[in-house]
Write a sequence for this structure.
């Protein structure tokens, strides 16, 4: 049995140029093969045969297997989409087939890379031969073509944590497509300026007083061909999941022992609040479900819920529990001391990602809130809580150098990456994948679906040069919309050859973003140590080197040890929280000290992206 693509795919790209005759032959073979298709999913396997008699029979686990000599194939199904990925020997070329339903039809899309002709995409639409298929919703192709090269991304203006921007600011871009000639900048949908030479940047005047504003960029090639766009929202309130009893006051008009309790809940942008429950001591006294709070007012990410508690006695306490649509729950509690009540105070919760190490540089786990001191503008702020890593979801970025020189460790790297993701990602964690050689590809946006992440690794191909700076900067930009703990793993084997971004720009942005970077250098041409130190040491990351002289059998073992060390760091991350009385929009720069002897704070990073 052979993978379902034309026989011309067997010829290496270096042996024969693409010409009109070869094009016609390829088109004829493809047309013959796609006149009919039989496909069946049997449990955890897919069985398929096309009109040319080419057959596929694979498990749906996303694991690449040697299917025929010189080829490896993998199959994955999820969210109404079936994917088949076939690569040639040493991952020299790739043939990606995607199947999804559109109404009562089946759509079959093939994409090629590094075959003996320019990269192409082919689509075939099938009618069912007998009757209608079972009901199912349409799956947009845009959701599954995640490996297309990036064209442009906005690098947000630098500012302090939670600071609102106003007046003139400089907006720069990361332009990955080398054929981009013009970039158009828009503010709140209105054109501001066009930049026609690298680095593509401009100054934009924001509103005063500050308000939420949107910046768009559009990239064009010669002839005004639109090739990419990006958007950021500035001065947008960031919303960690918090629950706080904000106000307790007596209700003399109702009764001498009745009180009103107001709770303030901030809701992350990626989910919704579904239920709020009030307890008097251990007895539930009120519950609210969406849409009870839709008309409560406040900012878009803050919800206020009020409840009346009757027959309160000295020594009672009030407890409030809030539940999100993604299953997370938080609560706050306060003792009711007779007539001692408090009015609402406007405070904002600040969350800091920290990593503490001992004298040997090993991460420490047995920390307590009392081990820390926080000062804000010279004033001491009490620690509200200290969360262990499992309490706060992780967003993990993995950027892989797929240049031609990575071929020596390619298969081992795939295996170790799969093992690492399986162990490092907990139930609520997510990861994304970036691939860079001469250019940058976004293999997979953040997801907690481990089988999907494994399947996306099959799209990695070895070939081309190295755009290290672009790959790191592009990866860091993916965190700008991602709250929670964050970390980036970069695997590369050499010096930058093809980036359009300067190393200094990347290291400055990395320091400002505050994402821990774990850099793994593979091979003889290690990246410049000046860049590596800036990327790793200032934000709590690490640099690892796999020495080029190691025997092949030891390379995989060394990779495993490195990823185990990274995993240990991630598991020992903590989130320290405190309440700031600074007004919204004023930049926050807390000073944090660790009081326990023999320990050092390796990193203190404000959470939530910079948009």
């Amino acid at each position: 049995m052979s993978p379902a693509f034309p026989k011309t795919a067997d010829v290496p790209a270096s042996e024969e140029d693409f010409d009109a005759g070869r094009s016609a032959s390829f088109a004829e073979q493809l047309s013959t093969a796609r006149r009919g298709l039989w496909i069946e999913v049997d449990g955890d396997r897919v069985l398929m045969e096309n009109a040319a008699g080419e057959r596929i029979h694979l498990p749906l686990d996303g694991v690449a297997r040697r299917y025929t000599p010189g080829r490896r194939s993998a199959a994955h199904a999820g969210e109404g989409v079936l994917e088949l990925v076939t690569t040639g020997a040493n991952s020299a070329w790739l043939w990606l087939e995607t199947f999804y339903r559109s109404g009562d039809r089946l759509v079959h899309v093939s994409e090629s890379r590094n075959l003996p002709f320019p990269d192409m995409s082919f689509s075939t639409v099938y009618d069912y031969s007998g009757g209608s298929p079972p009901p199912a919703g349409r799956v947009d192709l845009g959701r599954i073509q995640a490996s297309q090269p990036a064209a442009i991304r906005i690098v947000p203006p630098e500012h302090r944590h939670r600071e609102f921007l106003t007046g003139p600011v400089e907006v720069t871009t990361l332009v990955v497509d080398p054929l981009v000639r013009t970039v158009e900048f828009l503010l709140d949908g209105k054109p501001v300026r066009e930049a026609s030479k690298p680095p593509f940047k401009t100054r934009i005047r924001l509103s005063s007083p500050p308000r939420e504003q949107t910046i768009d960029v559009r990239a064009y090639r010669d002839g005004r061909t639109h090739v990419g766009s990006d958007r950021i929202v500035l001065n947008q309130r960031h919303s960690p999941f918090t629950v706080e009893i904000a106000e307790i006051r007596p209700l003399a008009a109702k009764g001498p022992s009745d009180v009103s309790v107001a709770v303030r809940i901030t809701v992350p942008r990626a989910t919704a609040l579904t239920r709020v429950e009030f307890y008097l001591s251990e007895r539930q006294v009120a519950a609210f479900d969406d849409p009870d709070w839709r008309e409560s007012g406040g900012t878009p990410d803050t919800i206020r819920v009020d409840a009346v508690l009757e027959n309160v006695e000295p020594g009672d306490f009030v407890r409030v529990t809030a539940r999100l649509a993604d299953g997370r729950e938080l609560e706050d509690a306060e003792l009711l001391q007779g007539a001692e009540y408090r009015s609402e105070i406007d405070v904002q919760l600040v969350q800091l990602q920290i990593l503490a190490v001992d004298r040997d540089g090993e991460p420490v786990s047995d920390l307590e809130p009392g081990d820390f001191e926080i000062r804000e503008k010279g004033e001491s702020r009490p620690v509200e809580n200290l969360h262990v890593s499992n309490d706060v979801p992780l967003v993990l970025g993995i950027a892989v150098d797929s240049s031609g020189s990575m071929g020596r460790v390619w298969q081992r790297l795939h295996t170790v990456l799969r093992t690492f993701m399986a162990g490092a990602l907990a139930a609520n964690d997510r990861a994304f994948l970036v691939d860079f050689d001469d250019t940058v590809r976004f293999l997979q946006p953040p997801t907690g679906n481990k089988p999907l992440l494994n399947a996306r690794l099959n799209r990695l191909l070895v070939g081309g040069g190295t755009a290290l700076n672009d790959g790191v900067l592009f990866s860091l930009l993916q965190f700008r919309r991602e709250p929670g703990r964050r970390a980036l793993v970069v695997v590369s084997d050499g010096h930058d050859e093809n980036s359009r971004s300067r190393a200094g720009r990347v290291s400055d942005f990395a320091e400002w973003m505050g994402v821990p970077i774990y850099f793994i250098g593979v091979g003889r041409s290690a990246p410049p140590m000046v860049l590596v130190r800036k990327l790793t040491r200032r934000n709590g990351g690490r640099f690892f080197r796999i020495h080029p002289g190691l025997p092949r059998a030891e390379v995989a073992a060394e990779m495993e040890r490195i990823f185990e060390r990274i995993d240990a760091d991630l598991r020992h991350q903590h989130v320290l929280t405190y309440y700031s009385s600074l007004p919204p929009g004023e930049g926050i720069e807390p000073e944090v000290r660790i009081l326990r002897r023999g320990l050092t704070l390796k990193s203190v990073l404000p959470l939530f992206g910079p948009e």
